[in-house]
Write a structure and sequence with these properties.
about 325 residues; alpha+beta; 10-stranded antiparallel β-sheet; 14 strands; 9 helices; two-stranded antiparallel sheet
Length: about 325
Amino acid sequence: MCKCNYYYALIACLYVCMLLGSYLIVITERECVGSYLGHPIYKVASLKILPCDHSLNNSSAEQKKVEAEFSCLLKLAERTPGLYFSYDTNLTLSVQRLNTLGDESKLLPLWRQAEPRFLWNNYLMEALIDNKLDPFLLPVIQGSFHHFQTAIGRDIIDVTLIARRCTRRNGTRMWRRGADSDGYVANFVETEQVVQMNGFMASFVQVRGSIPFLWEQTVDLTYKPKFEILRAEEAPRVVERHFLDLRKKYGNVLAVDLVNKHGGEGRLCENFGNAMQNVASDDIRYLHFDFHRICGHVHFERLSILFEQIEDFLEKNGYLLLNEK
């Protein structure tokens, strides 16, 4: 591991406008957490919020009060966990998408190559982009990054696990559920496993997200707050939009529904299954697996039951494999 000690290093700049002025969010500390495709990957260790002008000094007491309230919200960015970036490669893109970039795209600044869904600082860079400050702009993802080596016999294997959290419809668990009317689901995450061994690289991608129709949970003091299905008649349309988008971006899709089939979650399972009947095809497949009933809290070996049910899909669709050329 390595850690830099310089202060106010312009690793990346983010720009935000509020009621009375503009602020610059600067990454001031980084921590090297491993490598990806041979390039160092850094975790954001510290952010600093800097005012860009002195307009606050000439404002009224009421304006200062409102600005202070917004500033408190802005400072939440300083405590945002799991922010990662690279100077040399684009963490927003999977290995397969990186390898399909055209020659012209590879010459563009990293932020212009980035996948907007996983570009955490997309909105914050807009003003800086307008002012052509490319040298200070780097794609940042929110999620997780783990890199380690292990061995099988005498072979050393390089393993990288990346989770990229989508910037659309984010929120904490239970406060943000289901999909919006455009089919974007709450807390969507793309996870990629990259394995390198003997000159070969293999990549496997899976995604997760909230059940893709309109529903919500009202948080209270109970362990499992009640949920409400909204505008149930729109479920088929929303589910179709969600899976057409997945099909376009990822190819064939297998949706594994892990919620309980009975009890309170049973209604979610039933509605999801019914809506999937309208979109199921050779390209889009739906499977329910009652995870809590079958595996409980400790019997994860029973996931082999799930694997047996989806093995044909995995064999058919495979994974990305690259050699040194």
